[in-house]
């Protein structure tokens, strides 16, 4: 009996998304050879297409793929006369170890890829390649760099792991907290590059969605870590607004003006529950999630609990003196206390070197001036923001606000 090609391809695509990290991680665990693991994982997926057409899609696709990759790895090692010792070692491991649960395998992979000995850009590329299964082309396209650049980052990371003897494992409890911070930072960076890219483009869905998937994985595998749940809550709540963030022309729509009926209510509900659970721990991601939760439950900007949001920003700034957080706090102060308070708060930040050249600083100032009725000054500030805008979509938004205020002469 043969299975239709479309059905097999769909099943294989789903298995690739769900099982790539497990297949890859299993071979790394057994052989310690990252290059061999990649080759064997790719071979297993390639063999699956004709095999599943002939025999039907297996009840447990992941187990079929792991077995195929493991057999391929053993075949390769048998052919390498210099690998006889490793073959015996792998055989011994096979004899005494039960297969690792899929979550354990992926978690080992995440912690190893995010080891602090690796450069940050290499951690990101290696995580997306080995855990998420993104191709080098997909990673290069998402980060707007060349494929060769991504390939070199991944290759250097693998070599560093081998040369430094970085163990393929989840760190022991005594050092897990420090390493978890690095894992969460990588996931947050991936999401940020998808949701609000540093080059100024609007959205890159593949990165944002992979970051949410990675955050789910880590939160599920370390359920006693509130910051992992806090990060997941934050990403879910931000991602829930995706459909409302762009207008018909592809321009960004600020949170205040978004059509909240277009928010994904399932993601909102999940994120709200997680945020409320994690906030008591008071970590940076949990606090950011709590701020996002206050926005998520408000019917509109005017009805938002700005008093609580300002208090949460104060707690967040006490943990990390971040100028962007301080600028967001100025907006919240303005919504709580009025535009003059916002203007005062923004002007107090105006000398911060970290905000120099950031279009958001004059834009927030312009918003306060507009609300104060100081239209000419507002137009001048919006023009400054327009000149600093990182892309045409944001520049067009500032131009529309300038037009709505009228000429500045």
Strand content: under 5%
Molecular shape = elongated
Based on CA atoms alone, the radius of gyration comes out at 25 Å
Helix content: over 70%
Order of helices and strands: HHHHHHHHHHHHHHHHHHH
- Give me the CATH fold name of the domain at 1-100: Rna Polymerase Sigma Factor, Chain: A
* CATH class division of the domain at 1-100: Mainly Alpha
In whole angstroms, the N-to-C terminal distance is 79 Å
The tally of helices reads 19
Can you describe this structure?
- Helix content is 71%, strand content 0%.
- It has 19 helices and no strands.
- It starts with a helix and ends with a helix.
- The mean pLDDT is 87.
Provide a short characterization of the protein structure:
The protein is mostly helical. It has helices spanning 5-31, 34-55, 61-79, 84-96, 102-113, 120-130, 136-143, 147-164, 173-195, 205-221, 226-239, 265-278, 284-297, 306-319, 323-337, 339-349, 360-371, 375-388, 392-405.
Q: What layout of secondary structure does this protein have?
A:
Layout: H1 5-31, H2 34-55, H3 61-79, H4 84-96, H5 102-113, H6 120-130, H7 136-143, H8 147-164, H9 173-195, H10 205-221, H11 226-239, H12 265-278, H13 284-297, H14 306-319, H15 323-337, H16 339-349, H17 360-371, H18 375-388, H19 392-405
